[in-house]
Amino acid sequence: MAKIFSIASGKGGVGKSTISCHLAKSMAGHGEKTIIIETDCGFRGLDIILNTDQIVYDIGDFVSGNCELVDAIQPVENFDHLHFLPASTNFEQTLNHKDLLKICESLKNIYDNIIFDLPSGYAMTAKTKNISDIFLIVVTPDPVCIRDASMFVDFLRNEKC
Ligand SMILES: Nc1ncnc2c1ncn2[C@@H]1O[C@H](COP(=O)(O)OP(=O)(O)OP(=O)(O)O)[C@@H](O)[C@H]1O
Ligand SMILES: [Mg+2]
Prior knowledge:
- This protein is an alpha/beta fold.
- Helix content is 37%, strand content 19%.
- It is globular, with a radius of gyration of 15 Å.
- The chain starts with a strand and ends with a helix.
- The relative contact order is 0.28.
């Protein structure tokens, strides 16, 4: 059964995608089957970070019914145990909690680790809150970023959210 990680932050550009990739590569390097799910629709970036340029289908195609989930999952060069599911390039694409739950249900018995690389802010984080086993809140040594992170932890601990 996969362990589900969400990499989040209040502030943007703090290193979430970088950490997601390094964490995933480390896990895969230890032989753990790992997938990164990119959820920042409109701002795909993991294809560049992971050096995978031949993307035909993405997460948006799957949730829209244009392809099977397996068609959108990409291998990562030099990492036998690492895959990723790219975000859509469509800014209007939305992912809801039900979509993410369905994806996790389909993948949880195949992978050891599922890593959600989230966009900054609460909106997408709220959708993975009840799905994730572990949240990593990324901060830089910037007082604004640290306060945002502190508010973020309160948000994640608030059962009403
Ligand atoms: N530890 C680091 N030291 C220096 N630069 C870094 C470090 N981590 C990430 N960067 C750089 O900071 C920029 C933003 O990183 P990244 O895309 O991982 O952030 P992000 O939190 O995912 O951003 P976004 O909120 O836009 O998704 C990138 O150019 C990346 O190369
Ligand atoms: Mg990112």
